[in-house]
Amino acid sequence: MQVENQTPNNTRVASKQAQILQERLSRDQEKNAHKRRFERHTVFAVATMIILDSSQHIEGVITEISQGGIKFRPASLFLLERNSERVSIILDDVKTTGTIRASRADGYGIQLIDKLDENDLQFIIDNYASND
User: Fold this and answer.
1) pLDDT tens readout for residues 53-87
2) Alpha helices in 33-131 (DSSP H)
3) Residue 74, Cβ neighbours under 10 Å: how many?
4) Among 48, 66, 62, which residue's Cα sits nearest to residue 107?
5) Average pLDDT of the residues in 11-27
6) Please, what CATH class does the domain formed by 41-128 belong to?
7) Cβ-based neighbour number of residue 43 at 10 Å
8) Read out DSSP for 6-26?
């Protein structure tokens, strides 16, 4: 009989925990909103990433872009941990340099050293915007 009495109590505890977690996530999003300085744009653009220390060329796709950063997905099955490596990204006539800040399953998050020129950003959006 004790199992039956614990079930409603467990449900209340789980519900309360879920509510607390949602509140924490909401506060975190508000607190960290200032960290994204530039609007992200979803694109699909075949590009090349060059690891500056080794001059290694890696073909792949830019999936997101903003004036301050790029998400680059290499055309390989596996991604190596490359945090803090300096890279160049080449797309058509646009070349920019940055530092890999995140290595994730969906690609490398690259923080650009200098802001991407507004004209270059608009060119990429106009020509490579994804309709997803």
Assistant:
1) 999 999 999 999 999 999 999 998 888 899 999 99
2) 118-128
3) 16
4) 62
5) 77
6) mainly beta
7) 21
8) HHHHHHHHHHHHHHHHHHHHH
